[in-house]
Every structure is written in structure tokens, then in C-alpha cells.
Amino acid sequence: MTGRNTKVTMRRHPAAMVSEDDFAVEETDLPRPGDGQALVKVLYLSLDPYMRPMMDPVRSYVPHLNPGDVMPGATIAEVIESNEPELPQGTVVACSLGWQTHGVVTKDVVRVIDQNAGPVSAALSVLGMTGATAHYGLLELAKPTPDETVVVTAASGAVGGVVGQIAKIKGCRVVGIAGGAEKCRYVVDELGFDACIDYKSPDFEKQLAAATPDYVDVLFENVGGPVLDAVLGRINDHARISLCGNISDYNADEPYGLRGLRHLLMHRVTVHSFVIAEHRDYWPTAIAELSGWLAEGKIKYQEDIAEGLDSAPKAFIAMLTGGNFGKQLVNVGA
Amino acid sequence: MTGRNTKVTMRRHPAAMVSEDDFAVEETDLPRPGDGQALVKVLYLSLDPYMRPMMDPVRSYVPHLNPGDVMPGATIAEVIESNEPELPQGTVVACSLGWQTHGVVTKDVVRVIDQNAGPVSAALSVLGMTGATAHYGLLELAKPTPDETVVVTAASGAVGGVVGQIAKIKGCRVVGIAGGAEKCRYVVDELGFDACIDYKSPDFEKQLAAATPDYVDVLFENVGGPVLDAVLGRINDHARISLCGNISDYNADEPYGLRGLRHLLMHRVTVHSFVIAEHRDYWPTAIAELSGWLAEGKIKYQEDIAEGLDSAPKAFIAMLTGGNFGKQLVNVGA
């Protein structure tokens, strides 16, 4: 097998708002698969908000990136050359090769994808990290009971959309928060939330109050910032918050000053922060249940697919600023 | 029994910083005990930070106070006239009569105090709500393991002092935060904490980092504000925060803007907010264990006793601004 591997690296730590200049595209020779290894060609790359804080040189749940490092990320790839009998040529696998076109894997670091179970890209969204995040954060941590009110921020986003649909399956009242009328329409009309509030509306807080007459029992939080403060003002006694993301701060010069600590205390709220990569043994449970709901038509999802690895930086930046619509993928194999 | 009942009421909602003008002293006739009731004379009143947010007309865990209401609070009282055989004259009870000199109780709303078990006032501090709060918030919610680092804010305060001593009994490294060199000396020399940092020091954050070389596994938080942000900057992976108080905000014009949400997420922190009044069935467990430790000399406590009910507003204000030293009581029976 001859050819070249193209990869996108972090050229420098972003100042605050990440820009395309913070990335570099490099080419190298294709790696060679050794014994028990397979060379794969990436089909799809998943772009996710967690990648942004990894670009900052601070203490975090994973070692931060250094200039020159390949950008990380989950991928779907196809075996094109193999020295591993369990991964014959043509096998499609989920793996974590990051922002590049090729890589070498062993059977221990991949999950083989059933190509008859629907589009292989679903393994990067509702049947992958996205779905596991939604399922774990909502059902294992927040544990909503029927008739409770669940609020989901970034409701039209990849995780948020799945969270809200699971909450509906569980009999909850589900209120989404999203940016713009089009996303809000999608969340209600397509995903079946009971309501969705546009946080850009001048009377956002008033609309939120009207949509949560019994206050908020569960918050699945992806955003942070003033939207979180607004929801804290509606929080109910013994509410549970699953803190999954803080995307509003990722590109900010200064972190937002959250004013609602008082509400946590007054209403005896529990906050669970989590990262799904630490709960790998939970993934099969989540994905099995989500697969069933998907087959029954109870869960819908949307993908926003950028074409070609070169488009990854631009698509990543758009995702961080709300410019995408659904799970952001890159069609690397295009 | 003739005589008068003196009570302190909330005259108006405080603007921000509570002042003595927000209180009024009133006199009424003594109430008369009916069948199954006893008239009691208050000996000690407990002053606690939770009373301050109750003075604000906002949604909270208890109905807020209205102008003219008697200030609430836990009390120790002695039966002076009784129509209840189980509460003969001379019985000393813990009850919740608030800021007044007399009241009428039934046996269902009091806890009889063993007058041979030490000073009766301890039932308002280490062997009462204070001790139960410390025990529950630390051991039931945060669950520190030996060798973990536990940070306690308001470490010389009534709750904080007990929290740190329990954590030492459990084999933890315990770092207090308090205001001023005298309080810090007391926390280390008398209460046995491993270190105590003065949050008023210009190099407070540097001292905190030096005192928490392995970061912070458990935070027992009574204060909020910039001190909380500083501790969040040292928080460890999978840390647990027991959110017990937010005293720095209680008298503020504007709530503090907490900037450290990012650290909660990055380090997968769990935050438990609680109010001990909701866990009454836990009190006997806590108080039994604390009584044992007290008898063995493993727990020390300090009381700051103001003389006479008239002094309650002034003592309350001092407590909210760090002017007290130890559990703030009022000797009402003086």
C-alpha cells in the first residue's frame, strides 16, 4: 500500500476564540502495519466540543495538547491492509485516530461496526459517544421520574437532542433551550420536545418561566454561562444537574461569573459532572437500548457532515459557535 | 405564672447588609399552657447563618419571613409550668422557639436534654444542629477516605471546626480556611487541623496551593465567593463538594460571579447541597457518635455567648461578618 497520510495538528494554543490559523495540515508517509496490526483509512471523523478545552494548556481530565500534536477525536475507519486475522480488509471499525486520513490499529483499540445496522456514521453519534453521554448523564446520574420537568441546553445539538428524546420516552416534561427559531422548531416538531426556548430572544427568561410552571427537576447542561444562571433561577427543590459541557466558556477571554450558587444551596441541588470516556463499561448498555429505540423510530438524529479533512477546522469553529445543526461529522473518506 | 414574653421580630426585609434597624423588640403577655402543654423559659438561643437568607423575600427551602414575624431559631429551654406529665417543671429541652424569652411546647416538638451529659448549651452546637450538619455533610455526602485532602471553609466556625476534627479522626489531611491569624492559630493548635490559611493574606492562593500539594478531594463549603473559586482552582479529579453555606453572599448587594464552573467539569466533581433539617432521622446517629468523641476528648468546640436577648441582633450581624469565634449563642436566661 503506497500513499500519504494527511493530518491536522494544533499549530499553537488558541488565544481565546479558536481560529483556523491555530491548525496546520501536514502530510507524512503512510504508517506500515506490523504483526497483529491493520492499516485503516478513515471514513468519518467526529468533531466534539470537548476538543476545545484540550487545546488550552491547563490541568484537565486529559493531558492537554501541545503544538504539533494531531488533533484528537473518534473516527470510523475501514481496514485497507491487515496483518490481523480478526480485522480482515473491508472491516469497518470505530476507533480514535483523530484528525487524520489513515492510521494503524490493533483489535484491542477498535470496535467492529455491523454495517447492516444502519449508516456506519451512527457509531459516531447516537450509537457512539454522543448516545452514551446522553443515556448515562440523564438516566444514571440525574434519574428523572415520570412527570418531572427536564431542561436540556444545546437541545438541537448531538447530545441534547438524544437526551430530550430519552426523557420523553421516560414520561417527562421536556423543555429544550437552543439558539434561533429554526433550531427550536426542529427540537419541538422533529424531536418531540414539549417546548423549546430561543436563548437569543429578548424575553428568554420570561419564556423559560412560562415553559417550566412546576420549576426544573433535572437540567442536562451543555452550555453554562447566562443560560445556566437563568435555569438556576427556576430550579426546583432536590433538582439534579448533569454537567456535561460548558461550551459558552470554551472560547471566552474570561470565564463567565455564575451568580446562581445561592439557588443550588436553597434548593438542595446535586450537581454531577462527568466525562463518558471514564464509563466505558456502560457504553454497551446505552448503545443496546438506543439501538432498540432507533429501530422503533423513537429516536431521531441529525448529522451535519463537512466534506474532506481540510474542512475540519472550519467546521469545528462553526460547531463551537452554534453554526452547525446536529451531530458534526467530517466525511474524511470523500 | 405571671410575667412578660420578650421577642425580637424582623421589622423589615434587609436591603443588603442586615442592620440592627431591621429588627424590633416587642413584649407580650406570657402565653398560657393548655392541656398537654408546658410553658418554658428560654435559656440559650442559637444564632446561625441560615437565618439571613430567610429574611429575603425569595423562593427558598423554607417560607421566607415577613415583617413582624419572630426571628426563628433553635433554643434550649427549661419548663417552668406544666400540664404535661412527661415534661415536669425543671425539665430542660431543645426546641425551636426562635428569638424570644418564653414559649409553649408539647412533648412532640421537643427533645429532652440529659443535664448530666455536659453543658446543656452543647445541644445547640456540637450535639445539635451544628454537629449533625458537620457529620452528615462530611460522612454521608462527601465520604472522604483516609489520606484524602479535605478543605474546610469557615474553619473556626461552629460547623467547620467539627467537620475538620471528624476528618482528622477519619485519617484525612485537613486544611482549614479562616479569617485572620488568631482564628488560624486556633484551628491548627486547638482543633488539630494540619494547616489553616488566612483568606485575608495577600498570598492566600499561593499558601493554599502549598498546603494542598495533592490537590483537594473534599471541600466542605460554608462561604462561597472568591474563596470558593480559589479552592476550585485546586480541585482534584472526582472531588466531592458539600455545599452547606454561602455566607459571603448573604449580605451582598449582588451575588458573586463564580468563575470556576470549568473546574467542576474538567475534574468530574460532584456537588451536594443540603440542609440538615431535612434529615432529622440522621440526627441521633450523628449525635451519638459525636457524644462519644466528645467524651473521649477527640472533639473540642468553642462557644461565643452574647448576654441577653437584646444583644441578639448585634451578635447575629457580627457572626455574619466573621466577628464571632466559635458557635454563636445568646444567653437568654441571663
Briefly characterize the structure.
The structure is a homodimer of 334-residue chains. Chain A contains ten helices and 15 strands. Chain A is an alpha/beta fold.
Commentary on this structure:
- The structure is a homodimer of 334-residue chains.
- Chain A has 10 helices and 15 strands.
- Chain A is α/β, with parallel strands linked by helices.
- Chain A folds into 2 domains: 4-122 and 301-331, Alpha-Beta Complex (Quinone Oxidoreductase, Chain A, domain 1); 129-277, Rossmann fold (3-Layer(aba) Sandwich).
- In chain A, strands 3, 4, 5, 6, 7, 14 and 15 form a 7-stranded mixed β-sheet that branches. In chain A, strands 10-9-8-11-12-13 form a 6-stranded parallel β-sheet, sandwiched between helices.
- In chain A, strand 9 (173-178), helix 4 and strand 10 form a beta-alpha-beta unit.
- In chain A, helix 2 packs across helix 3 (158-169) and helix 2 packs across helix 9 (283-295).
- Chains A and B meet through helix 8 and strand 13 of A and helix 8 and strand 13 of B.
- Strand 13 of chain A pairs antiparallel with strand 13 (270-273) of chain B.
